[in-house]
Structure formats: C-alpha cells, structure tokens
Amino acid sequence: MRPRPSLVFVLVVVLLTAGLVGVTRWSPGPLRVGMVAAGAVGGTVPVSSTTLVCPDASAPGDAGATDVTLVAPVIATTSSATATPPTDSRAVAQPLDTLLDTGPTVTGSQDSAAAIASLAEQGLASTATVTDTDAGPVVVRTVGTLAPGLSAVQVTTVGGGDATGLAAAACVEPSSESWLLGVGTEIGHRPRLSIVNVEPTAIEVDVVLYGTEGPVDVPSLIGVVVPLRGEVTVELESVAPDLAELAVHVQPRTGRVVAAVRDSRVQGLSSLGVDWVPAAAAPSTRVVVPGVSGGGGQRLLHLLAPGDLDTRVGVRLLTTTGPIVPAGLEEIELTAGVVASLDLATVLGSEVAAVELTATEPVVAGLRVTTSATGAAEMAYTAGSTPLSGLAVAPDVRTDEGWTGRLVLSADDRGPLGEELSPAASAVPARVRVDYFDAGSGELVRSDEVEVSGGSTLEVPLDPAGTDGGATSPRASVVVTSLGGPSQRLVYGTLQLDRSGGPDAGFTIVPLLSPRLVVDVPAVRHDLSTGLRAE
Amino acid sequence: MSDAATTPTGRESSGGTGATNLDAEQWPEAMADLAAPAELIPGPRTRPRSPAAHVTAVVVAHNGARWLGEVLASLRSQSRPLDRIIAADTGSRDDGADLLRDALGVGCVVTLEGTVGFGAAVAAALAGPGRTTRAADGSGDLFDGGASTQWLWLIHDDCAPDPDALAQLLNAAASAPDIAVAGPKLRGWHDRRRLLETGVTIARSGRRETGLEPNEMDQGQHDDVRDVLAVSSAGMLVRRDAWDRLGGFDPRLPLFRDDVDFGWRVNRAGLRVVAAPGAVVHHVGAASVGRRTIDAATRRRHLLDRRSALFVLLANLPGRALPWAYVRLTASSLLRAAGFALGKLPGAAIDELAAIVAVLTRPDRVIAARRTRRDDQTAPATVVAPLLPRRGAQLARGLDTLAGVFAPTSRSTHSGADISARGHRSVQTGPGDDELQDLEPVSLRWLRSLFNPGFLLISCLLVVALLAARELLGTGRLMDGALLPAPDGARDLWRAYIGTWHDVGLGSDELAPPYLAVVAVLATLLFGNAPLAVDVLLIGAVPLAGLTAWFATRRLLHSSVLRAWAAGTYALLPATTGAIAGGRLGTAVAIVMAPLIASSAAQALMNASGPADEDASGAAPRSGGQGWPAAFASGLFLSVATAFVPMAYAITVAVVVVVGLAVARSTGAWARIVTISLLPPALLLPWSAQLATEPGRLLLEAGLPGLGLSDPGLEPVSILLQSSGGPGSIPWWLGVPLLVGGLAALLSVHRRVSVLVGWVIVAAGLGAGVLISSATVATSTAAASAAGWPGLSVAVVAGGLILATAVGAEGSGDRLTRSDFGWRQPLALTVALVAAVAPLAFAVWWVGQGAGDPLSRQDQVVVPEFVAAEADNPSRPRTVVLRRSADGSISYSLLRGSGPRLGDAETGPATGAYGLLDEAIADLVSGRGGEDLDVLSGHAVQYVMVATPVADDLVASLDAVSGLQRTTTSGGAALWRLDEPTARLRLIDASGGPLALLPAGREGADATVPPGAAGRVAVLAEPADEHWVATLDGAEAPVSAAGGWAQAFEVPAGGGELVVRYESDSRARWLLAQALLTAIVLVLAVPGVRRDLVGP
Questions:
Q1: Chain B residues closer than 8 Å to A32 by CB
Q2: What is the pLDDT of residue B974?
Q3: Cβ-based neighbours of B286, under 8 Å, separated by 6 or more
Q4: Which of A459, B348, B483, B560 has the fewest CB neighbours in a 10 Å radius?
C-alpha cells in the first residue's frame, strides 16, 4: 500500500507544538535559580565614628582664652542592620599632639588622661577652656552611639594683643577639599592658614591661592607635607602679600585634612578684629551665604569661579522682608580663576540678610563683615553654606553678662528642584524648631518653633531662660531642627554671638552645619566578574 | 632493488627485464644453459649452462572445488609445460577430490585426513600412492634424476598461474646455481591487478610482512628479481634436492608461516630464495583471509597464526638473539592481547595469550626445532639479516594497522551508499565481498578525499569560522561574555580540577566542575596550551559541529548533498555562533557533542529493534552487536556535554525515553537506555550529586552568567525561530527556513518515524528552552543574576528540525518526480529552496557580524602587570578590584593573581562568604569610618583598584582614605597601595598587633618563625577550615581562634620551621574512582574491531 501523508499526523504535531508554546505564555512568574547572597546591603546607617578638629586657637601675641564645647545631641537611634557600635562609647576632646597611634578607639586610658573634655552620654555638653598659647588644635573624637550628631565649637575671646575681639569656629570633620574666602593680605592683615592632619600617615596637600589677577603662583604651597597627626601653618601675607582679595583652595592628594584660616587685622596700632574664616561650600551653581549680619560696616562678598569658564552670577538678597534683587548688581561677570569682591553694605544698610547667588558655572563665595557696633572694630566671616538637613547644633550659647546670641535663619523660595515658583507658592514658610538644652544637666529646657517665610531671613534672639525662666545655667546648647513640612524649604542658618564690654568685646558668626547623622552605604557584593566586563 | 645489488653474490643482472626477455621459443636453449648444480654450496657466479629441468607441480586441495577447475586449467596451459602434476586432497568435503581425480587420474591424487598440514600434504603427495604419472612430455619419471634438475612447483587449490608463470620462474631460478627457491608475484583472484605478495619476510613481532601497501595495485613497481627471505607456498618453485635436504616444510607448522620458515632455512643453508615477479599467480588466499575454515590443526586461526609466528622466530633466530626475543615476544604478545581486549575481541586476545603460553611452556619443541635446523645451517646468520624488515618499517606498519582498526568506517565517505552499514564483525564466507578488493590505491584515495563532500564542507566551515573570527585571532586570551580567560597551561586546569582547595578569591573548597577535566584533557593533548584549547573549542566550534554532524548523519542519510546541507546548517546555527559571541564555552562544546550523542544513542536503540525504521531504504544498521558500545559511547558523549551544560542531560534522557517507548522492543534496548541515562551521573560524581541536591543548577552552564548575555523577555516562539537572545542573536526571519523545512517534512510519507523522532527532539528542546529562558539564574560567585540562556535548547530544536527536514527530503525527490505533477512538486521545490538558503544565510550573517562581541581577545586580564607579578611574591599580596554598577551598588572582586581564570566561576567561594570584606569595602567607599584597612590587611589585600570605566566619586572617596597611596594608573583604571605591608601568612602577638610577615606559597606555606614572645599566632589569610594543618618543627601546631574568620595557629616562643598544608584526601578517592570508571567506559565504548582487520 502506498503510504499517504497523514494530515491528522501533521495536525497533531503542529497542535502539540502550538500548545507547548501557548502554555508557556501563561506560565507562572519567572523561576529564580541560583544562590545570590546579599552581600552588604546598602542603605543609610548611623555614623559610627566622628572626628572633629577645632583649629589651633592660640596665636602668638594674642592673649586669649578658648572654650571648646562639645555636645552630643539626643538622636533617636534608628535601627541599624549593620555593626552595632559599642554602647559604652565616649567622646573626648584632646590636643592634637596627645593623639596616640592606637586607631580611632577612644577608650584607651592614655587617651582619657589627655582628654581636656569628655562626654559619656547623649544630651550633655562639656566645655574645656584652653588658655595655653601653644596648645595646638584640639581633636574631638568618638566611636559608637555618640558619633551621630556630635558637634563642637570653639569660642575664643581675645582681650589683649594686637587684634582683639571675639572669634569662633565650628569644629569640623576632615575633608578632601576646602575653600576659604574673604581674607586679604594687605598691610596689617594676618591671615594664617592652618592645615591639620589627624590621620596616622603624612598627607601631601596642594594649596592654591587665587587673587584678583587669577591664581597666585606659590611653589612652596604645592605638595605641602602635613605630618601624621600634625599641623602645618602658613602665613598667607608672607607668601602672597598685598592682595585685597584672596581665595584659598586646600586639597590633599590623599586622605582628608582640616583647613582653617584665622584672620586678624590691625590698622596701625588699633585692632580691626579677629575671627576664623569658615570653609565655604563646594563650588556650585547655586550658593547661599547666610548670616550676613546687620550693622553699619563693610559686608564684602568674595566670589570665585574656580573652573575654566567665565560665568555670570545673579545676586539676590534674602532680607527680613523677602527677596530683593539689588539694583545694579542683578548680574555680575565673573572671570574664571579671579576673585571678585562686592560690597553689599550700601544695598543692605543695617539689615540682616542672606545672599543667594545663581551662576552658570560653579562658584564659591565667602563674606567678611566688619562693624564697630559693639565698641571696638570687629570683623567676622561667613561663607557659602549647606542647608540644614535635619538638625544642627549651636553648642555654646551664653547668656552671661555681656553675651547675646541669636540665630539668623534664611529660607529659600525655590521648588524642590531649585526651580522658580510663583510668589504665592514661594512665600510658604519653613518651619524650624529651636530646642534649648541646659549645658549642665543636659535637660531640654525650652523648645520654640519659628516660621521663616520663603525667600526671607529671620533673626531669632536666643534666650534659654525665656519667659518662664527654665534654664538654670548661663550656658545652653541649642539644637536647630528644620521641620521640613509641605514646602520642603531649604533653611540656612548661622549663629551670631555678640560680646559687649571688656577688652575682648566683639562679635562672631558661626555657620550652622548639620552634622552627619547617617551615611549612605552602597550595597556591596563580591562579584567575580568585576573588572572583566564593561557594562 | 638495493637489496639485490648488495647481496654478496651480486646478482644485479638478474633483473626482471632480463628474465622476461626469454620467450617460449627460447625455452630449450635457456634450459640448456642451466648448469646442473652438482653441489649446493654457493660458488662463484657462473652462467648456468644447459640442463634440462624437470618440474613437478604439487597441488594441495582442501575444500577448494570452487577454484580448482580454473587452477587445473591454468596448469595445463603453461607455456613451459609441466612435467608432472600430482595432488593431495586433505579431506575436502566438497567435490574437490573428485575434480582432481578426474583431471589428474586417481594415481596422481593422494587423499589425506583433513587435519594434515600443507607441508605434510606435499610430502605425502611426493611419496605418492603409486608411480602413475601423467607427464606432459612423457619424459621420465619423478625419481629419474639423471641430468635434469628436479623442481617442485607447489600449487594451492586457490591459485592460478598465468600461462608463462612457470617459464618465468624457471628462468629466474636458473639465473644462478645457488637459487633453490623462486616465488611468483601473487595477485588477486577477483581483482586481478591487486598485488598480494612478491616475496615475504617475517617481522620481529612475528608478523608476516609483504612490504606492500594494503590494497596496492600492481603497476610493475616491484618487478625486479630480488632475494627475499621466503616466498609464499602458493606457486613456490623449489629445487627438489633442496627440498629433500631440508626435509620440506616443518611438520610442526601445519598451516601458517611454514613458507617463511622454509625460506629462512633455505637461506641459512647457503642457498637463495628469489622473488620472480615476472611470474604471476592469481591467488585467493582463502585460508589466510578466513574464507574457509581450517581443519588442518585447530579452528583457532589466530591462535595458530600467532603460535606459528612465534615458533618460526624462536626456531630460526640466531642463538644470541634468543633471550631478547623471548622477552620481546612475551611483552608484545601481552600488549597485543590488551589491544584486542580493548577492541573487544576477547577471542583474539585469548588466542594471543594462548600462543605465547604454548610457545613458552614447550621449550622442548623449540629446542628440537633448533637442533634439526643446526645441521642444515651452513651459511652465517648474517645472510638473513638484510632480508628481515627494518625496525622503523615495522613501527609504521603498526601505526597503520592501529589506524585501520579504529577507523572502520573510513571508507564510507567515498563509496556512495553506506558500505559501513555492513558493519563486518562476523567472518564472511563466499566471494560476496569482492567489492572489498575494489579499492583504489592509497595515494588516489587520498587525492579523492580532497573532493569528498565532507572534506569540502569542513574546509568551507573552517574558512567561514576564520573569516568570522577575524578579530579574535592574535595574541592574548579569549575572554569576556560568560568566558573567563584560560590559565597558562593544562597544569593549572588539572590543579583546579584535582585540588580540593582553590585559591580563588577568599579561598574555597567548592567542588570543581568536571568540565575543567575535559578542557584539561584537550589542553594536555595540545601540548599543555590551555588558551589554545579554549580557542579550539570556541572558534573551532562551528567546523567541529559540522564534523560531528557529518559523522552522525552517515547512517541516517545516503545523499551526500543532503548530509552536507544538514551538517552545514547544524554547524552554522545561530545558537552556536551566539555561544561563541557570548563566550559560552559550555554550549559550544555541548552543540559539538550533540550529534555524537544522538547518533550513538540511535544506534543503541535501533540495534535492539532490528530494522526499526519503517522502510527498506537501509537507514537501520543491519549488523547487530554494536548496540552496547554505542550505548556506552552515547553515555560518554553525554557525560562530556553534561559536564558543560547540565541541561543536555535532561534533554537527552527525555528524548531517549520517549523514542525508546516508540521503538525499543527488547529488554536489551531498555537496558541500554538505562545505561545512557545512568552513565553521566555516575561518571560525573561527586559533582552530579551536588547537581541533584540543587536542581536549579540544571539551568546553569559553564562560565559566568551576566546581564546582557541573555534576554530576560525571550518569547517561546523565538526558540523555535532560532533566536536564543543575548549576543549573536539573529532577526526572527532568519530562523523561518528551518521551521518551514521541519513542518514540510511532516508531509513526507518517507521514513515517518525518523521525522517524528526529529519532532520529539524539537519538543524536548523547546520545553528545556522555555524553562531556561523563563528562569533567572545566578552563580554563587557572581552578584548579578540574569535570565537563563537557552542556547543549547535552541540548537537542539534546530537539530530536530534539520533531522526531520533532511530525512523527509531524502527520497521525496524521487517519489515526487515519479508521481504525477500536482501541488506537491511546487511546494516541495519551494521548501527545498527555502531550506537550502538557511545555512548560507547563517554563514553570511555570522561573517558579517563577526564572531566576537562581547567575546574578545585581550592580553591583560584585570590587574596591571606588575601587580599580577607581585602576587607571586612570598607575601602573596592580593588586590581588590572595585566598580560602581549601574544601579549604584558596588561590586568588587578579591583577586590573587592577574584576574579570574577558567573554572573560578564554579570553584570560587559563594558571594555570601565575603561578609567581613563586604563591610570593609562598604566602609571604604562610603567614608563611614571604621577599621576597614585593617580588615583589608587581614585579607592580605595590598592593592585596591577601581576598574574602568572609573567612577569619579569612587576615586574621590578612595583618595580620601588615609593609608591608601595612589600609585600609577594603567589603562584608565585607578590603583592604590596600602601603606602597611601585608602578607598571606602573618605573625601577630597576643593582642593582635602585627609582628612579622611570613612567606607563603599558593596553597601551603613553609616559613621560619624566629624565637619571640609566647602567645604569638600565625594567621593564614584563608577561611578557617579543619583541613588546614600546620606543624612547627614537625610537631603539630594547635589551632588558634585568634584569627577570627581566618585560619590561625599558635606559635610557641621558640619559633621554628612552620609548615602549613591543606590536607584532604576524600577528593583523591573520588577522582580515582572517576578515572577508573571513565577508563572502563572508554573501553566499553570503543566500537568493536572488525575481525577481518585482525590476522596475519
């Protein structure tokens, strides 16, 4: 019999195949096969160790006393999946030269012996007074529960010597780059750059100076070796004299350092004041310089576009009444690498304000305030700042005789992405809570909530005693918390301290910097293919 | 011939031309020239004068009636008539004896027992039953010697001399007085031009050497008279006096080697044996090729042959050579027996052993034989030496034979229909196999193989592969994609496979994957060049797949064109080229193995069920008995494929079981199916046990899976359309022709079962492919998980479609031309055209795209040269390589050398083992603070590197870490060195402070620990494991817990020689068992040797 193609046969095979394909279309979700281990899960974890460096307060020829105050604010501990820090953690402040080569732990007895101040639990403050003229920088360290939020400030009163006044500096963590602006090296100006290395290896640092004519060529500042756990100071007026405007860029080749400039000025025999220059925020196309205090003196804004391109900078002032664009200063041309200065005294008058800069290329900014409102001529520095994220601590607010303190808070009026908003939307206020903790007992004595309208600046006088007279100690630490809210306003703040009467009368501005509470830890996993494939 | 020219008597003038000058008319004169040899001592060369020769032909018959008539006729038609013919019949069961009696007369024929040997039969014939002669010229009687020289002409019942054979022989014999024996040129009986012998000698192994190529054609290339050791007894012309003096053939040699022995003795007697190629005798050689059974002594032909061979050697070799000959022959017999056992010819092996035992146990026979020979030996032993074969020739011959034994199917490629299907194992009888002689000379065959379609196909594929891989040639190593670069040498691969502990990353004791052994074997064969082995497997995958497909289709398809199409299409499958592009070594090898698995499995299944296929077109092998070797071979091939791609096992078992349900009709077939299914798990132990406990690994394959190497959203239909996703994917329409062909094959009425088997394979491949592509797979050593890659499944689908198409097409053409014109013919033509396009399209696409991407050839692996070099220092510093992934996470790799190597993906420790280091790296890149660098030092990390493309923030955060010193960057990567020196083996004090760095090896360590404080600890930067053992000056060092994760040993204050080793012997036992089992399976898988290739 001659075989014939069986259509049934063909049909069966085709249907079976089609069925197989069809069934798999409705197959359940994907199978997971293999053993993917998690590795280190990324996320945010509390800071486990903090090292703050308070710059060298002593200055030859200046008779001053320095109070180093450290505060560990109460931080609600977030549950952390990663390494639990030791619970018996302590924070200590000690001179740099007593730092022993035992790693970051601060439980060693030798460390304790050298401690000039120490903290054992959250909420407390501890103050040490340093009068030694060559005490050197003070290092504040902790590992463990006290690490998140640990803050310190050093307040120096200089009552004798060439330059007198009040100087204060926040103690900051070492960083891999610092910008310091606002100083000049004309006759009588003595800005002293201090570079501190707390790490167990020497660090090479490149220091680049920018002047009114562009970068200043100072070969001796390239590759400055900062010894391990040591300090290098540079008298800027001797390496780059006669510059009215000077920007200092400190960049370690490896590791991190703390760079600070202590400026003191005299004119003839009379003091023009003394203060620390805070580090400016990293170059950005949007810079806010908060805390431009009132008073009659010069408010000299220094600007630098450190890149290779010239830029145009728009200037706005966030005043107590709202943002204004100063006439004639709407937009200034900025040549790359050249420090430009701008006196805002005439447009600001005696008003307190913040300066907002919007540039087409990243810029850095610093500002010098001079005044004689408290008696003798005094000066202070503020600089481009980072907004408050969560809390910021003003560790040492005094209400003693002659001392007054106030917060200057500015809220920006942009949208979440920095975009311009309608006037109605931009005026939505930022809410800020101000908590007063008694320096002695660590108790919360008072809590205020203030609102800062978008695009404006608010001056908050600090009065720990308040109307109900809660505080028993003349000193308090103030914790400023940006409450966020629907508007998500960015808040910038400074602490301003005035001291009247006495030879050390003066004023100072300390930027409110939010300490790092948590760290973004990337997910880390071992993967054999790393480096093999270009993804 | 140089032999002739250098013989002492200098017989160069007795060339063939001289001999053939004489024609029949000159006979009387020529004869008159012959001098009567009064004495048998070789004398000075004198031109023989005169004498009359008297030639007696002695015919010995044994069941040779088939040829006898022609033999007798040829004797009668000799141009030099015979003087007398006598005959002996040794118990023929056919009518041979009657034929002889009819032809020669009763009186001339002696009838003997069937067990009488040739020599004895000749002797008996000469003794004669009576004196009745039938002399052609009626002159004289046999024993009337008188003046004429008496000659005997020994004739077998299967050899027919040409008419002038005797004349030529006599002429040659008469050319010198000391010539006692002359032998003709033996040519084939059926193929009359085929040269069988012109003189023989005996190799030192006992082999009978003719000095000719197998199947050599006679083109006059051996036509000169020369001295030889011996000539065949078929047509041998021997002087009667010599015959009598030496006693004829030795009765101890009933059948084989009697002629050689006789020749040897003649030579030693100072006489000469010449081959006279002018005389032609056509010979069947029935006894020696096994066409007839032998009654002479025993039915064990091989035993007889070997025993005779050994005996001849031992009886004739000079005495001083005897001890060595004994040793040598014993050893070679054992070797040969082993060879026969391997070739699964146990009978031959036993014969071999029995022969040597028989000779060794009966020294008396040898002694007796030597004693009788001694009397005749008047010439020194050296006269024989030039007549024995050279040693080199013998070796070459042995190799030839070996090649012949193991390539029994080599002839199938050029003789059209499948000769191989005859699968000779049994000794065939009768002349039905005469085509065997219809073979060309070797040289021509070689030439013709150049134009053999298979050869052409593989050449084309090779050219296409080289064209496509144009950017993958050069220096460096293949890597990227799923492929990790090969190590330097086969030794590294073996070490990775054999070792229990692997120096990969953190260090691990994971099971080494068995595919490493396969690659290592290949690398060893390639003189230890491991990168070359990977090149061969990957770039060579296409030609190799073509080769195996060509080989596999030899039983399936008769048409060379269809075979070439099928093999070519299979070789160029997008799955194969995709596997190459993606660096999927596993899939490439599995695709190469798949046709072998399929064809041997088919053979294993079909043999049991007889002609399983539905028509008589001869696809089913006719011979039985190869089923078991095929089953073992299939299991072995499957094991290799499974070692690379475990899914190959699942697919094969599914197909074999389903097909078995349809065609297997005997328990034997099912036993073979079970064998195929059980072999891979057994051979791959203990790895297969691990696979069984983690079935998910079935979806993995050799190498590192990765994102971008597979397509997470692969549609099931694209598996049918030959698109496997990932690198080297093809547009969907390129896969259409195959599918069309496969579907069209369903319409064929031709060999429907085969078509259906094809579709079963398609279904199995489709199922496996869908399963794999819907899975998300990850290996334990790679962080990223990616979709599975169904490359092999897609290739299996294609293989099934090709099988269905080719089988369906074969014969359809004939059938369609025969049937009436209708819709079928245009349809078939269209399908044929579409299908024919498929391989061309694949080839063009592949060459156009290039074989690489991401696969590439690179020199540097990961870390810079000097860092990799430093890794060999005694401190064994390691490197951490970092990269920020697209999702912001950090991936890193802890490297001990220049980078990961082949096999590290499987032998490396699981990602989860790195917890401590994960934390440290997280600290390092986030600036969270912590003891990160101490942890790195504890892991013996000396370098930190950010791989290209470099993430600037990563560089910034590493720059900011004190204790890390930026060093030179190479190739865009950034590199840091830890300030603190570290080492794999460190000495720390009781409180954990570092004391000293100690030298260490790759695995163990030998270090001198100086005396010091008590409580010191030596820390080895390897995960703590009870297999690490340390001794200090020979005393076992206690394990310390001070190392934390790392292995640590207490060191006493005195110090001493510290020796650290990893000791584990369970792996060695597994490997031994595995090697043994593999060897056994290999032996069982070797196809049986064709019995007709064995023999004298």
A1: 775-776, 785
A2: 86
A3: B64, B67, B158, B292
A4: A459
